[in-house]
Specification:
18% strand; Beta-Lactamase; two-stranded antiparallel ribbon; alpha+beta; single chain; Arc Repressor Mutant, subunit A; 265 residues
């Protein structure tokens, strides 16, 4: 079983960025590669080698990187761990919460996911999977770009009023990803009404061929959206067990929502 929080987007070319963006790009690249030499950072980000040495040195002085001199490479510093722990506390990622996600994975045999609402977006914060049922890939793509094709995205869209949904989908037009992706707006709106009424969203090979996903919203006491919990697997493993999967998701969603609200049960 593999349990971990989800990292941010992958590093990109930083040659035209300012100093702050370049420094962040260095941190991202080192995180993605599990460590990197100055030359690897320079090549990966399109930066001059002297710039890399200067910025990486400043990041190391501040504790965000560590310079392993014997290996001539940089690794993440402990200051990032401190910030990560602070973020986990803000997100409510306590051990009881992550245990619930792990139990969801164990009881269903599916990859299990937790997303929380940050601003106007659902952000993936924890995933538990296994070699037998791995997480969906790529994990960084989907919620913002193609919400109509993911179970998490449908939970978010179903929670929006019509004007807000219209604006959201204008920024993220309906795109065809597989033969099963819904790209007709009327059909999508009808499905989202069902999601809102039933409190559960499904996608069956709409995001990735050969995979299905189900998600249930996490609610505040006033019924506002807190986040969502979901599972994914191959359709023949997930869809035939729909009643059991839905019941288990609702149970876990109720417990996680209570934990995120600071309520004990």
């Amino acid at each position: 079983m593999t349990s971990r929080s989800v990292s941010s987007r992958p590093p990109a070319d930083r040659s035209a960025d300012g100093p702050l963006q370049r420094a962040l790009g260095i941190i991202e690249l080192v995180a993605e590669r599990g460590g990197a030499s100055a030359r690897e950072i320079a090549d990966g980000l399109g930066l001059p080698l002297p710039t890399v040495y200067r910025l990486a040195g400043e990041l190391a002085d501040a504790g965000y990187l560590v310079h392993i001199r014997s290996e001539r490479r940089y690794e993440l510093g402990t200051e990032l761990h401190r910030l990560g722990m602070s973020l986990h506390r803000q997100l409510g990622l306590s051990r009881p919460v992550t245990r619930e996600v792990a139990r969801l994975h164990e009881s269903t045999g599916c990859a299990a996911y937790l997303a929380v609402l940050r601003g106007s977006e659902l952000v993936m914060v924890h995933v538990v999977d296994s070699p037998d049922c791995p997480r969906l890939q790529p994990m960084r793509f989907g919620f913002h770009e193609v919400p109509h094709a993911t179970a998490f995205g449908k939970v978010l869209l179903a929670d929006l009023d019509v004007p807000t949904r219209d604006e959201y989908l204008q920024r993220n037009p309906l795109r065809t990803l597989t033969a099963h992706t819904t790209v007709d707006r009327d059909a999508l709106d009808q499905e989202l009404t069902d999601v809102a009424n039933r409190g559960i969203a499904w996608e069956r090979e709409e995001f990735l061929a050969g995979w299905a996903c189900a998600a249930v919203p996490l609610r505040r006491p006033d019924a506002g959206l807190l986040g969502a919990v979901a599972v994914s697997a191959q359709p023949d493993r997930l869809v035939p067990r729909q009643p059991q999967i839905e019941a288990r998701l609702r149970q876990v969603a109720s417990r996680i929502a209570a934990l995120l609200r600071g309520v004990t049960r």
